[in-house]
What we know:
- By secondary structure, the protein is mainly β.
- The protein is built from eleven helices and 34 strands.
- The strands form four sheets. It has a 22-stranded antiparallel beta barrel. It has a five-stranded mixed beta sheet with strand order 1-6-7-4-5. A two-stranded antiparallel sheet has the order 2-3.
Amino acid sequence: MAGSLRRFTGRQGCGGKWRIHMSENSRCPQIYWYICITSCVVGAGMLLPSHTAQAQAVSQAPDQATFTSKSNRHINKPNPASPSARNVVKQAEAITVSGTATPGNSALSISTREHSTVQVFRYSAEQLRETGQTSIYAAIAQLSPAVTSTPFAGIGGNGLNKSMQLRNLGADQTLMLVNGKRRHVDANFNYYQSGQNYGTDPADLSLIPMSAIDHVEIITEGASALYGQDAEAGAVNIVLKQDTHGGTFDLQNSGYYPGDGQTVDGNVDYGMALGRNGGYLNVAAQITNQLRTNRSGPYLGSLYLDPSDPRAAALGRNVQNLSGSPQSLLETVSLNAAYPVAKNFEFYNTSTFAHKDIQEAQTYRAASNDLIIRSFYPNGTQPYLIGTENDFQVNDGIRSSNFLGMEWDIYANYGRDQMANEIRDTDNPTYGLASPRSFSTARFISDELAAGFKSTKFFHTSLLPRPINFSYGFEYRRDSFHIGAGEPASYTDGGATVLDGPDAGHVVAAGAVDKFGVPPLAAGTQVRNVFDGSVNLDFFATRKWEWTLGGHAVGYSDVGAAATGSIGTRYNFTKNFALRANANTGFRPPTLAEEAFFSETTFPTYRTAQLPVNSPWARALGASKLKGEQSRSFSVGADVTLLPNWTLTANLYRISINDRLYNSSLFGGTNIESILAGVGLPNVLYASYYSNPVNTATNGGDISTSYTLHTTSGTFLFSFSVNIADTEITHHNATPGILTALGQTSFNRTNEEFLLHSAPKNIENLSVSWNKGPYSFRVQEQRFGSYTWVASPSLVQTQWTYAGPSYITNLELGYDVFKRWHIAVGAYNAGNHYPTRANAASRAALQNAFIYAGNSPYGFNGGMYYVKTSLKF
């Protein structure tokens, strides 16, 4: 498999535009279309004549570290310094049944074995670079139709970090891994009620240098047994480079067609040998500096107290910056190393560090707004939320390929993410002329300490054709989430009233305008202890029939214990055709941020609040202790080689989740305000908290296929892939009695729409790549299904914006100046397509700042061009 990571393959595929006419509103019928199409294609593949002289089968061996010689250190690892990566055709991958003598993944595996009982989509570093994206999430979303990662993360605190969805489930329902080890979650909670990542608290893999990545794996079946019971949607595993020589340097400049959003990205990596017995050291770094974009509409309200004020004409209406990508500077470094310390033993270390500064525009405040101290801001003000993030993780361990007749991995990991928030160009009107103009509003820290071991024993028996793989392990984790209070002036009432204008002397809402600081009562530290035991058994019942059984038994100090299991099977009928099936259960506890996060937003006469679920404020509104989600998933799939250079992979799946964790409705009214004031939180008219409101079921399917064609005019690779994932609510849990008495519901129609239709349920990719000599060209067409944008919880259903299907085209033209120097020009959304325009009610809800649907899966900045150069040394 030395070259397989550099191939375009069916399971890696990009790809396409779906031309069959299907109803965008109907759900299940679309799935049946895909089932019928898959059945026909697979059936056709079975009828084709057998091709025994096909391309060499890809090895099934996992990426295991071995310590007996330097030559076998890098099993299945590509050499990034190879000058032929672009000049050699990437063949379609053949399905194989030959396998290796040992099935399954072992304690030494940092990668997930392909062509097994689990489905693995693998994308190489070369494929990631060819997208022209500088963020790992954006690159994966362009390659895999099962992944969505909107370029605009949201307003408020949602815009401070990147995230992704897998199979249309929540961002934190996908387990994030680096070299097979769990990644700590981000400190920033996506609390703002808008978009597909609303109410999530995931890990952020975009804080790892792109240049450090060897390949990315998306594991969609069996991940809850292999890696953790909270992998309900699946897992994403970033595998870092292990090279012993050479490196790469990449430089890219990009921008959007209107001329803004200029981004300069530079990344480098270098590998070297450590010692003479197979040790390695890989270091990598990436710096990305992005300027902001602005697609905001003109401000339609009164700019001044007097609408006829002559200053209005001079100021103009283009004063808002809310709708656009924020300005940011991201600096990341990584280290991946291993050093043999004795025969069959090695020490390893994987470390990453990231620093990010981000400036995100908030809601524009005109001089007519009584929250503005007009002597400070005579022409109004555009506040900015400043986020400063520091993130690191260190994974250390000792591996042995043979100790007591078993493979071992004993490790200790620690990860920490800190986000400090500041609001600038604002004020606290209750302090009058003594008010500061910038405020430190909060500090959030999330960390995780993990220590444990994994062990694998291979048993040989004459009853079975291959050895039995038995793996077990134990891990202790200590998770904590800390909330630091803001400075006093950001949350206290200074006693001053409106200073001037017709409302002079009136009471005004206290706190820093736009980002109320965290008060001491909401500050504190939450801690969870986790004890996780796991076991996996992998064996071949016959030479063609593989079985996998596994499970986790986990104890949580705050939500009790949960046991989950998985069973998978794969039957290789021929070298060209195999079927898979999986059944899994999972359990995901609430993150500590979901339990403890607090935030307030200030309006002229009231505030809105995200309440910690265990606080007296949330309890007064009927909140109860959060439960963990319980999931069940079932899938069937096929791997087919239709022709020597034509492969196809297809899957159908169902994922059911009980007691799904999600934010409540936004409760509002004077009764809510009175209740909260009675427990020490005054002037809060609207509030929400985290809960377990509903059960859901997601039905879906995916197809990936690719075909390689050799001609005298060059080599062509045709790839098509599609994913459909339709989520429905199957049960509503009861609304607390106090809310029922007030005529409120814990999960209203607005929240249902956030949950079900914020992201398109189907995405199709079609791509064609051409390569001849030093020249390369790639074109990709992407189709995104319909989705809904709810600009504000105050809007009723008839006021939502319904976005129809969209098509965008991505291009890249490359040239090898010489074997180790490549240059390219390209475009993402080359046709400069914008999403559906927001309707009048949606625009008015946010001061006309958003004229396009804010949760578009491809953004609303229009076309992006880029030029880049890559040097291998």
